Amino acid sequence: MSTENTITIKDEFIRLGQAMKLSDLVQSGAEAKMVIIDGEVTVNGEVCTERGKKLRDGDEFSFDGRKVRVVSDAS
Predict the structure, then answer these.
(1) pLDDT class for 4, splitting at 50, 70, 90?
(2) Residue 1 pLDDT more than 50?
(3) What letter does residue 35 receive in the DSSP assignment?
(4) Cα distance between residue 29 and residue 42, in whole Å
(5) Do 19 and 32 meet the contact criterion of CB atoms below 8 Å apart?
(6) How large is the C-alpha radius of gyration of the chain?
């Protein structure tokens, strides 16, 4: 069973590793790097191994049964 949360960004995009830390899915950038490289993270339903992947408004990422949607507050 997955739960969905949202994170709000103030810029045009946020990088995947940063988004994972911001949403408390991982404790550190090093942990984010490991789980991303190991293919444990999906972005918009597809496995993503790119830590620097840019996430924009409406994108979703999942890890460990938790799904997070990115919402932009950029003006």
Answers:
(1) confident
(2) no
(3) H
(4) 17
(5) no
(6) 11
* Cα–Cα nearest to 25, from 14, 37, 16: 16
Where do the domains of the chain lie?
Answer: 3-72
Summarize the chain as % helix, strand, coil (round to 5): 20, 35, 40
Compute the average pLDDT of residues 30-56.
96
Q: Which long-range contacts (CB under 8 A, 24 or more apart) does 23-30 make?
A: 23/66, 23/68, 25/63, 25/64, 25/66, 25/68, 26/63
Give the pLDDT band of residue 75 (cuts 50, 70, 90).
Answer: low
The token duo for 34 is 């490991």
Give domain 3-72's CATH superfamily: RNA-binding S4 domain (3.10.290.10)
The position carrying tokens 């789980």 is 35
pTM of the full predicted structure? 0.89
